[in-house]
Task: inverse folding
C-alpha cells in the first residue's frame, strides 16, 4: 500500500462531518497544485467526486460565494439530500445548467478558500498545499498565459485580501508539498493526535 493509499484509508475511516458526508478540503494559493493533488487523492479513494470551487466562484464574486455554497450544497448534503448547484462558466461569464451531487460518503472540495471559517465546522479534514504564494501565482500565470494577465492582477489582490481576513493554513490538518518524486505531507496546526506526523508519497509523478 502506497502512502497516498494509506492516507485515503485514514480519510475513509473518519466520522461524517456534513450529514452522512466526510467533507475533505484541499486549499492553497491559486496555482499551488490543488487540482492535481485532489485528482490523485480522489483516485486513491476509488474515484470519489471532486467539487472544484472554480465552479462556485465567479468574476463578480471570486470569494463572496459562501451563501451560495451553503444554500446549494452544504444545507442539502447536511440533511442527507442531493444537492443541486449551477457551475459557473468563466468564458461565458454566467452560471450554467444545474447539476446534481448526491450525498456520497466522501467528497473532496478543492479550491482557494475551501478551508474558510464558514466551512471549517463542516470539514472532516483540511489539507493545505504548502507552495509559497509568489511561486504559486507565477505558476498560475505561466499556465494561463499573457491573455489572462489582467485577470491575475485582480485575482492576486482579491486572494491576498481574502487570506488576510480569513486564513486557512493555521487550521490545516495536513500541509502538502510537491517535490520531484511526488508529494510529502506533515501535520499542520489543526492536526489531531491520531494524525500521522510525517509521510511521503512518491509514486509515479514527473519531476517538477
Result:
Amino acid at each position: 500500500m502506497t502512502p497516498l493509499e494509506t492516507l485515503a484509508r485514514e480519510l475513509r475511516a473518519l466520522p461524517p462531518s456534513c450529514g452522512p458526508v466526510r467533507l475533505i478540503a484541499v486549499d492553497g494559493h491559486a496555482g499551488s497544485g490543488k487540482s492535481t493533488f485532489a485528482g490523485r487523492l480522489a483516485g486513491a479513494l476509488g474515484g470519489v467526486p471532486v467539487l472544484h470551487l472554480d465552479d462556485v466562484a465567479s468574476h463578480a464574486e471570486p470569494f463572496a460565494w459562501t451563501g451560495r455554497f451553503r444554500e446549494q450544497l452544504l444545507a442539502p448534503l447536511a440533511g442527507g439530500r442531493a444537492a443541486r448547484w449551477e457551475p459557473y462558466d468563466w468564458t461565458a461569464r454566467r452560471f450554467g445548467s444545474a447539476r446534481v451531487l448526491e450525498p456520497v460518503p466522501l467528497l473532496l472540495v478543492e479550491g482557494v478558500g475551501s478551508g474558510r471559517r464558514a466551512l471549517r465546522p463542516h470539514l472532516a479534514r483540511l489539507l493545505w498545499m504548502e507552495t509559497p504564494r509568489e511561486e504559486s501565482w507565477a505558476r498560475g500565470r505561466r499556465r494561463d498565459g499573457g491573455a489572462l494577465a489582467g485577470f491575475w492582477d485582480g485575482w492576486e489582490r482579491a486572494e491576498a485580501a481574502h487570506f488576510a481576513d480569513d486564513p486557512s493554513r493555521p487550521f490545516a490538518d495536513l500541509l502538502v508539498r510537491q517535490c520531484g518524486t511526488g508529494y510529502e505531507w506533515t501535520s499542520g496546526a489543526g492536526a489531531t493526535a491520531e494524525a500521522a506526523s510525517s509521510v511521503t508519497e512518491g509514486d509515479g509523478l514527473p519531476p517538477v
